[in-house]
Amino acid sequence: MTRIAVVGAGIVGLATAHALRKTGADVTIYESGTPGGGQSAGDGRIFRHAHDDVRLAGFVSSSRTLWRQWEAEFGVELVSDAGAVAIGDSVEDKLRILSDLPHIRVALLAQGQLASALPILADFEGKAMLDVDGGAIRTLAAFRALTESLTEALVADHVLTVQHTSEGDVEIRTGTGVDRFDHAVLSAGRGTAPLARNAGLEIPVELAAHARVTFPVRQDVDTPLPTFQDGSGTFGETGVYAAPSADNRSYSVGLSETTGVRQDGSLADPPALESLAARAAAYVRHALPGLDPEPSGYVHCWVTRLPWGEDGVGIWSTGKISAIAGHNLFKQAPALGEALAETAVSGVVPALLRPEAQLGKA
Ligand SMILES: Cc1cc2nc3c(=O)[nH]c(=O)nc-3n(C[C@H](O)[C@H](O)[C@H](O)COP(=O)(O)OP(=O)(O)OC[C@H]3O[C@@H](n4cnc5c(N)ncnc54)[C@H](O)[C@@H]3O)c2cc1C
């Protein structure tokens, strides 16, 4: 039986292990912390089809199909059916790009339709759209389902090195052991680029830090809430995203802006995280009167971006070691898991995900 190691039990590593299991491989997943505790942390993510790169929109659409298959397999809702709302002038570009993929259902929203789709939003007269098959990813349910089905494959340990041996297989050195595999997949989020470098792969990841703030939904709102992106500037910010919790009682709001990180991993400007959180709260006061502007929770998180775009993603591979990097990967995790499993089994990275393809180019 082929022995494959997956380093990192975030959503991408677990999706990869899940896909590998279906090929009959013997999978071991190394996780130094809690599964789902890294960049995948927190309740809720946005599933949206609109991306600047139409190839990525198509890839995300294939991932939507896989999320539905996971829902059937695990018997639990993993993407809500309330849709994904976007407002601002960029709506026209989003609709134009998605018109090349007619199977993706999108609609322009008139002012009244926007108010009933997103009743927590203040009056807005500009352009608005609904991505009908978008919605809120039920992140916690996804982690519950995947970790339960992969329990015996999970090893709680920190991986220090992943290297080819002179016998042609891959050696993994952890805090407490040494093991050998036929292939290793590095899906360690922030930890991927350093491990990959030791294995001979240079991944041009730019590291940053990010804050997302959660606010209670006011008592009188009982409509299932869609996710939300605001690029309009009407309410004082031009890059805002938001998603509801699974119980619809809270809404998490973040600015797409991040703060820089030095080479050694320290924040260049530590108070900037607080200021990003304060701006999110100020935005809520202006734009989202259906929320109580007193924060009820935070996600402070690392962000790993590739130089060719906010949504850039790629798979690097050398011999029997593969590594993935990119940002905003939650929505495409099921499809990335299949692509990484295919790479591990065949040794060949699917063309769309090779770094030279620059998938997600802005
Ligand atoms: C606040 C926020 C909001 C976001 N919103 C969205 C959104 O709306 N939609 C979307 O699609 N995406 C979104 N993203 C991005 C998305 O969440 C991430 O791209 C995705 O979760 C990355 O998953 P991952 O499995 O690659 O990495 P992680 O979740 O970081 O998993 C990597 C794991 O590897 C482990 N690890 C690291 N190094 C080692 C080591 N040496 N040994 C063992 N284990 C190791 C870590 O502990 C971690 O658990 C958002 C991200 C953040 C932070």
TrEMBL record:
Q: Which domain of life is it from?
A: Bacteria
Matches recorded under InterPro entries: FAD-dep_OxRdtase, FAD/NAD-bd_sf, MTOX
GTP-binding as a keyword?
no
Q: Which UniProt keywords apply?
A: FAD, Flavoprotein, Oxidoreductase
Limits of the FAD dependent oxidoreductase domain: 3-342
Q: Which cofactor does it need?
A: FAD
Q: Which Pfam families match?
A: DAO (PF01266)
PANTHER family named in the record: PEROXISOMAL SARCOSINE OXIDASE
By what name is this protein known? FAD-binding oxidoreductase
